[in-house]
Each structure stands twice: as structure tokens, then as C-alpha cells.
Amino acid sequence: MPRPPKDAGDAAVRARHVIATSTDIEQVKVAQSVLLPLLGLDLAQTAEVIGKDRYWVSRVRNRFIRGEPLSTHGGRRNAYFSVTQERELIESVVSENEIYWGSHFQLTLRKLLTRRIYAETKMPVVESTITDMLDRYTQHYVKGATWGSLENLQGTLIRLARANHEQRTATRKLEE
Hints:
Order of helices and strands: HHHHHHHH
Number of domains: 2
Number of helices: 8
Number of strands: 0
Strand content: under 5%
Largest sheet: none
Structural class: mainly alpha
Helix content: 55-70%
Shape: elongated
């Protein structure tokens, strides 16, 4: 049985205000991490509702209650490339490897990206790095989407790349 939540004091009022006024989803999640335990949910249940792990809920909840600023350092401190370079890398891999389009496009794209990054950095690439890159790339075109959340991203990418190819072909014909 989990222990009762720590008294939030004025943090509950601040959290309600954040939920009512904020347009940033991360701020709303932090506020929910303060309020949901006060409604009887334990940290694991709160984490499940918010979509984070219970350690994150505990950490940001305690910081919010103490009135401390939330960590804003982000996660790109050890990035292989800048976001722009990532986008260019993905676009070049897609455009250079049109023959790989098919039923295994997502898997093939991951392998091609892994090989290209390794070739350029000589560092091993973990699967989560590729997933994060594809999530950032997808959000560039579809706001709020992630690579995994789009059910038919494969077909969408194929149509976009084909349209891009057709546009380049038409442009070349006009230039001739």
C-alpha cells in the first residue's frame, strides 16, 4: 500500500492554475503529477495516466511542491548531429535509396540510417537514437506526431518522396 501523498500546500493551487492557463503539454503533465496523487492515485498510476515513469513523476512533483524550477537542459547534449543535419541526413538517405521502398521501408530506413551515421561518426548507434531522430523528423512535417504514432507513415513517406521525385523530374524537363 503506497503512503499518502506529501501535503502540496499552495502547490495544488499553482498546479490548478497551470492546468487552466498553460498551453505547454509538459507543464500540464507536471501540474497533473501534483494533483493526481491528491485525488488518490499512487505514483505508478499517476505515471501511467501522464505517460511518464513514476520516478519522473516523483522528481518533478517534489520540485514543483518546493517551488524549484524544472530542469530545462534537454536531451541533445550528446547528439551526433544538429536537428538540421539530422533532417538533411534522413532526407538524403530516403532520396538516395528509392529502390528500398516496399513493405519493409521502416526497417530498411533504420538500417540505412544506422549505417550512414556509423560511416560518418565511426561511433556505434543504438536503436533509440534512430527512433528519436525519426520522431524529430516526423514532427517537422506533422506537428505533435511521432514515428511510432502514425499508423500509415510508410505510405505517407512513399507518397511524399514520389511527389518530390515527380516534382524534381518535372523541374528538370522544364529546364531542358
